[in-house]
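Structural prep section.
Before we set up the soaks we want a predicted structure of the protein with calcium ion in place, mainly to decide which crystallisation condition to try first. Input record follows.
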Amino acid sequence: IIRSFYPKLLSGKKVLITAGPTFEALDPVRGITNSSSGKQGYSIASACSRYGAEVLLVSGPVHQQTPAGAVRFNVTSAEEMKNCVIQLLEEEKPDVFISVAAVADYRPAHFSDKKIKKENSSDSYSLELTKNPDILSLVGHLESKPLCIGFAAETNDVIDNGRLKLQRKGADLIVANPANAINSDSNDAVFITKDSLKTVGPGSKEALADTLVLEINRLLKDRNC
Ligand code: CTP
Ligand code: CA
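Run finished without errors. Recording the tokens verbatim:
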């Protein structure tokens, strides 16, 4: 019943969202990951669905319930997330891509089929890492690309770093926020586009998701003018 009170601002629109962390395996029992609850991405998926969008949610490993109306694709590594996103871009042609996932920047260069044993002869252990693909940047540089939205969690120079990411990744909007929001329930953020700067919050991740939907609606309209 509550759903019907929301204006269907995004009806007829398809939104592809990545959420949660990625996990990069080192051996069958270990790996490296990023700290991410998935809460912000799932709140955004839920808001987009409430506002009438068709939602495709590509999710790393999280403990979150799939929002009503969203179709969820589970992935583990950044490489899997990238492949899933590329396939959905081709098959579903989404209008909007929202990259909320905390993608691990690097993965172990080698995967060991067998559990790596501790060497008692040495007190240190080095791990070789390989850079993961930048999924947002990849989508942001496609010739016919959806409206691209990224996040930037920063410990310092939030706006400057956000602006750099907007340019480098070919995004239309960066939601920049202090890094301490990652595992908390609330968020204060700055919406950065090439010609505007807007502070949002402090407020809940749900409130930020609602404000983001309004901004997406505005950007989609600008785009079609
Ligand atoms: N992102 C991505 N693929 C990656 C890394 C990041 O799609 N391999 C996306 C994130 O989902 C986010 C945006 O890019 O929307 C910014 O992520 P962030 O980690 O802040 O940026 P990086 O470019 O990885 O820079 P750094 O971690 O060095 O600040
Ligand atoms: Ca990163």
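Observations: DSSP finds five helices and twelve strands in the chain.
Flagged for discussion at group meeting.
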